[in-house]
Specification:
The chain is mainly α. The protein folds into 2 domains: 33-150, no CATH class; 194-299, no CATH class. It contains 15 helices and no strands. α4 packs antiparallel against α5, α8 (156-162) runs antiparallel to α9 and α8 runs antiparallel to α10.
């Protein structure tokens, strides 16, 4: 199984060892390849051999492929989206910054298929939507569709601005994104009222989310913990950066039970960049923490022995 080790070379120490164990176990269960991508009818070589491949490895493979086939970027984006998994999200994030607008558009549309959050994808979509970015209408619409899938509260002000956009279809897509991300309902047709509502949401979001996260961290009462999980599921996107920072801390130094909570939230919000941390927990063996991690991996599109690739 020595061939899998380079895919995880960015990990260090015990985390690297656990990650290799997970990769090897999943590779065995899947017949050797987790997230291979063969693009085009000529069956070009597979670019990704592990859905937990390191970001650097994915970037190197994709750049190498595009260097040999500069016209194949759009097809590559579609292939990555179809294959799924965190490594595919990394690849789409790279393609979303491609010099060819057709490739960028394909990457954004791929994000709507993949349904995984990735900071690089979000940032690329936002860059296309800023005023005077010079993006083509189709690319802007594709970026809005992607933002509805990968965005969070940071994008609400931009989406509210786009409700006033005169380009055909843009305002409607901005409304759809706001409804999907924040559940704003009828307010979405009134930008001024929506701006006032969002200011109030931001004032409350930090304390509410901190209380919920503190409850999971410190309170053993099952009812309180269930209420905290429900609040995070309902409002976590309002300040996803705050939630993600706490998840990193839990994975780094939390007890197994808290890391299980972190894994569940990774699955809830489909946070592709934290897949490797979840895989480490999944490799710990039996018990509730490992079960929670395996369930989260399945939601991220990582095939897990004994589970469907996507439970939704």
């Amino acid at each position: 199984m020595a061939d899998e080790a380079p895919l995880l070379r960015s990990a260090r120490g015990a985390r690297a060892a656990w990650a290799r164990l997970v990769a090897c176990a999943l590779l065995l269960a899947s017949g050797g390849v987790l997230c291979g991508v063969a693009v085009g009818q000529d069956g070009r070589r597979r670019l990704l051999s592990d859905s937990l491949a390191s970001p650097n490895q994915v970037r190197q493979d994709l750049k190498s492929h595009l260097g040999r086939d500069p016209e194949g970027g759009a097809a590559l984006a579609r292939g990555l989206a179809d294959e799924g998994g965190p490594a595919a999200a990394e690849g789409l994030a790279l393609l979303a910054r491609h010099r060819d607008p057709a490739v960028r558009e394909a990457a954004f549309l791929g994000a709507t298929v993949l349904q995984l959050r990735h900071g690089g994808l979000r940032e690329a979509a936002v860059a296309v939507l800023v005023p005077y970015a010079g993006a083509r209408p189709g690319e802007r619409r594709a970026a809005l569709k992607a933002l509805a899938c990968v965005g969070d509260g940071r994008d609400v002000p931009r989406l509210i601005e786009l409700l006033r956009d005169r380009e055909p279809g843009v305002a409607a897509l901005a409304r759809q994104a706001l409804v999907r991300l924040m559940g704003v309902g009828p307010l979405v047709r009134h930008p001024e009222r929506l701006e006032a509502w969002w200011a109030g949401v931001l004032a409350r979001a930090g304390p509410e989310l901190d209380l919920a996260l503190d409850t999971l961290e410190r309170t053993p009462d099952p009812a309180a913990r269930r209420a905290a999980r429900a609040l995070l599921g309902l409002k976590g996107l309002q300040d996803l950066g705050r939630v993600t920072a706490r998840l990193h801390a839990w994975f780094a130094a939390g007890p197994p039970e808290l890391r299980a909570e972190a894994a569940a939230l990774v699955g809830e919000f489909r946070l592709a960049p934290l897949a490797r941390e979840v895989a480490v927990l999944a490799a710990t063996g039996a018990g509730a923490p490992a079960d929670a991690a395996r369930a989260a991996l399945a939601r991220l599109g990582v095939p897990v022995p004994g589970r469907d690739a996507d439970p939704d």
